């Protein structure tokens, strides 16, 4: 198959929503990837924070193979053992009382937003419908979630858009306090803005949002699609902030590479969704739930402590490269979600740098035109990190020359 297909076939057969790299990965193991020509790459992107435990993780593979011989799909007229185990684990390890499973982060956020509006309508009437969101946020690509996301470039072409959605500056509690009212049904926030530049929330900001939601009887939604499943060094980022939401969304790393999404919530909110009010065909299927169970089983204290160690190592190396080449103005993030903002001389060159990095054999991400983003496997070996930064330095040297 590899000999017959190449990058040109994407342009020939695929809807051009994406502009993939010129190389095609065909094999991966741990944090190493090989393309059709046999070239090796160190993966510092993790499938956009999805491959939480690396490629072809043997524990995930063994669990999936065992479930493949048992039950693939049964439909939402029935439940299954793997999904019940997954729900029980998530409830026991978080603030939540109930869980809804779907297939992606966008679907999880769609469910959370629909739930917030229905909960408010049931309790307070139709007038309580305003949703407060934040500029430069990203919550998915459905019409509702892309509108709630604070990046008009992704939503403007699809007008008319869902109404009653307000976008405010991130980390600006004063702006929220001036906007929120009895009409507000929900605030949705990423504990760390991901796609919009890897910008962590101030603790006082999240604490203030919690207090405002309590005062105005609004639902506080944490979008932890990118920050969840151990990415920041705890199971979910809220656990480091000491602020509990009413609803939380999860996906990406939760499945370790197998598509799954989840909405976690409290009993009072869960009761607003009764049979027929929301649903999904594939959500919570036994295969996805089995893989997610294996992911959670591996997210123990030792692994999460390793995330913190790797964060310090990467941040130090990025800082050293920034000083040596004058290329970075800020290093930020938490755990293994790290952003390196380009200095003024190199603004707008993030994609150029990731392309050069790929040529040197390291896969990285961008978070907007000015930020290099890293989201490698949580268990990436330090030897792979060392090699990744040797290759990254070669790419930076080429850029700055």
UniProtKB/TrEMBL annotation:
InterPro entries xref list: Ac/SucOrn_transaminase_bac, AcOrn/SuccOrn_fam, Aminotrans_3, Class-III_PLP-dep_AT, PyrdxlP-dep_Trfase, PyrdxlP-dep_Trfase_major, PyrdxlP-dep_Trfase_small
Enzyme class, first EC level, given as a word: transferase
GO cellular component, one term: cytoplasm
Reaction equations catalysed: N(2)-acetyl-L-ornithine + 2-oxoglutarate = N-acetyl-L-glutamate 5-semialdehyde + L-glutamate; N-succinyl-(2S,6S)-2,6-diaminopimelate + 2-oxoglutarate = (S)-2-succinylamino-6-oxoheptanedioate + L-glutamate
Subcellular location(s) per record: Cytoplasm
Keywords: Amino-acid biosynthesis, Aminotransferase, Arginine biosynthesis, Cytoplasm, Lysine biosynthesis, Pyridoxal phosphate, Transferase
Note accompanying the cofactor annotation: Binds 1 pyridoxal phosphate per subunit.
GO biological process: L-arginine biosynthetic process; lysine biosynthetic process via diaminopimelate
Names of the cofactor(s): pyridoxal 5'-phosphate
Pfam families: Aminotran_3 (PF00202)
In-chain residues carrying the UniProt-annotated modification N6-(pyridoxal phosphate)lysine: 252
Pathway noted in the entry: Amino-acid biosynthesis; L-arginine biosynthesis; N(2)-acetyl-L-ornithine from L-glutamate: step 4/4; Amino-acid biosynthesis; L-lysine biosynthesis via DAP pathway; LL-2,6-diaminopimelate from (S)-tetrahydrodipicolinate (succinylase route): step 2/3
Molecular function terms from GO: identical protein binding; N2-acetyl-L-ornithine:2-oxoglutarate 5-aminotransferase activity; pyridoxal phosphate binding; succinyldiaminopimelate transaminase activity
Binding site for N(2)-acetyl-L-ornithine: 141, 280
Family: Belongs to the class-III pyridoxal-phosphate-dependent aminotransferase family. ArgD subfamily.
Oligomer and partners: Homodimer.
NCBIfam families, A to Z: arg_catab_astC (TIGR03246), argD (TIGR00707), PRK01278.1 (NF002325), PRK05093.1 (NF003468), PRK12381.1 (NF009047)
Protein name, UniProt field: Acetylornithine/succinyldiaminopimelate aminotransferase
Organism, as annotated: Candidatus Pantoea deserta
Organism taxonomic ancestry: Bacteria, Pseudomonadati, Pseudomonadota, Gammaproteobacteria, Enterobacterales
